[in-house]
Structure prediction request, 112 residues.
Amino acid sequence: MPGLPAFGLAQPLRRLAAPLLGAAALAVTFGLGTPAEAGVAMPSLAAASTTATTLPGVEPVRWVCGPWRCVWRPNYPAYWYVPPYARAWGPPVRPACYWRRTWGGGWAHVCP
Prediction:
């Protein structure tokens, strides 16, 4: 029967079917990983915390913040709260440096 379209689909639907099937195949391939692959790619948080506490010469340090100033303090427990704005700050440039809140509400890095 020469008048029937291939695969039972009309011409406009055939033009859409191939890209949609390709997109679905890519979504399945890249979007659905197995849990074993995810476990290999990501380190265990429990293993990281145990190795950090057993290494000699490693001490926990963090920014300790009050309402007007944040200072870098060693030997603070890891479970103490660190404000979200201070989590991205790295260690100070010099030992005496600290962050202070400005009158506009922002933070300024001060190194006396």
Notes: Residues 34-40 have pLDDT under 50 and may be disordered.
